[in-house]
Amino acid sequence: MKKRKMYFRMITASLLRRRSRMVIALLAISIGAMILSGLLTIYYDVPRQMRAQFRNYGANMIFTATGDSIIPEDVDKAAALIPSDKLVGMAPYRYDTVRINDRPVMAAATDMKGAEKTSPFWKVDGDWPAQSGEIMVGKNVAETYNLKPGKRVTCTFAPEKEEEKGPAAEAGENQGGTDQAAEATTEEEVVLDNYIDFTVTGILDTGGKEENYVYMNLQDMEELTGKETVYDICELSVSANAKELETIADQITESVDGINARLVKRVTQSETTVLTKLQALVLLVTVIVLALTMICVATTMTAVVAERRKEIGLRKALGASNKSIIAEFMGEGLVLGAVGGLLGSILGFVFAQVVSMNVFNSSITLMPWLVPLTVIASVLVTGLACLIPIRSAVDVDPALVLKGE
User: Fold this and answer.
1) What pTM value is reported for the model?
2) Residue 237 and residue 143 share a domain
């Protein structure tokens, strides 16, 4: 026990006697550990941050129908196969042609809350429709009909009419009597156009084809058209990497007969490319910083060995073994590495937090396991940096040193 206590006292005394050099080495190790800890935090947390950012560019998965349309029950089954913590938003769409001022306009019915989550890049002048009787119109539609938020507009829909001609009408046609045939024509039911008065809540500006549509709730579309609700397409925003998305899409396509799930390649491929390059850059910078830290520590320890040549020579002359010399210098280096690594891991989290807030505008996730990893990495780097100075210390010839050569 006394021997171990003496060993730690020697190391502590040696570090304190050379404060200036050891502070430089400690700063180098701390900065290296800070960069290492910060970049590793960013490396592991940046995919989550980037996926959150890419969700602002729209849906990355789409459900299409294997038949004519998608029934709501199939969408619910497919959505149940996606982990709830990964599903950001889901917006089913149904399209039909309605009329405004007797001019045809394409109407899109959807779940407004889901559409707001899957298409956060949509710029809306006003508000999203929040209840029945409210509508959002594209910018081009608004300019055509001079619509503004708060204005009332009537949308009409013409149901299919079934007509049946009586015998007199057929006879009239055979005789070429057009007027008589028209009078004889009978209809089972006189069907008037359905209409709903809507309040415009917002004007949609996207710079794309969405500006040619009017958007309403699914319930309003069902009431206006008189048709049971089915979907033409369903857009989803899922927070997952490309491999996870492919697995989810394949599982849905195989499990739900009425749905074909596919990925939006332009979004998923861009996300994968950016993440791969960014992570490669982080790793490259980390390796360079560790190399510079190693060089700085090696230089400092070499200078320490040069200063202590006479001390080393005297100890050898008194019978100190190379093993004890190695143990002392390596102990000094490892203590510096441990202290610098611990300090750097704390500063690294602060560094990562600042980068995350300035780049992604969101807080970083604390990963406690990075603290021991950073300390271990710092100790290893410092240990490797001490190998060359230690070799110089072992090669000291006591006879030459004590003679002053």
Assistant:
1) 0.60
2) yes
Q: How many folded domains does the chain comprise?
A: 2
Distance separating alpha carbons of residues 245 and 285, to the nearest angstrom: 30
Structure tokens at 252: 């849905």
Burial of 352 (0-12, 13-18, 19+ CB in 10 A): buried
Residues 81 and 40 in one domain: no
Instruction: Identify whether residues 199 and 101 lie together within a single domain.
Output: yes
The rounded distance, in Å, linking the Cα atoms of 112 and 385 is 61
Can you read off the two tokens belonging to residue 389? 């100075």
Query: Given the structure tokens 């739900």, which residue do they identify?
Result: 256
- Judged against a pLDDT cut of 90, whether residue 266 lies above it is answered with no
**Tokens (6 digits) for 183:** 């009078």
Q: How far is CA 289 from CA 35, 296, 298, 346, 382, in A?
A: 7, 11, 14, 17, 13
Q: Which residue has the higher pLDDT, 390 or 149?
A: 149
Phi, psi of 133 (to 5 degrees): 90, 5
Helix axes 265-307, 387-394, angle to 10 degrees: 20
Q: What percent of the chain has pLDDT over 90?
A: 33
In this structure, the answer to whether residues 244 and 364 fall within a common structural domain is no
Top-confidence residue, 298 or 169 = 298
The span from the CA of 135 to the CA of 204, in Å, is 11
What pLDDT does residue 19 have? 74
Give the residue from 325, 338, 320, 327 showing the smallest Cα distance to 378: 338
Residue 146 has pLDDT above 50, yes or no: yes
What one-character-per-residue DSSP string does 226-270 give? Answer: -----BSEEEEEE---HHHHHHHHHHHHHH-TTEEEEE-HHHHHH
Phi, psi of 160 (to 5 degrees): -65, 135
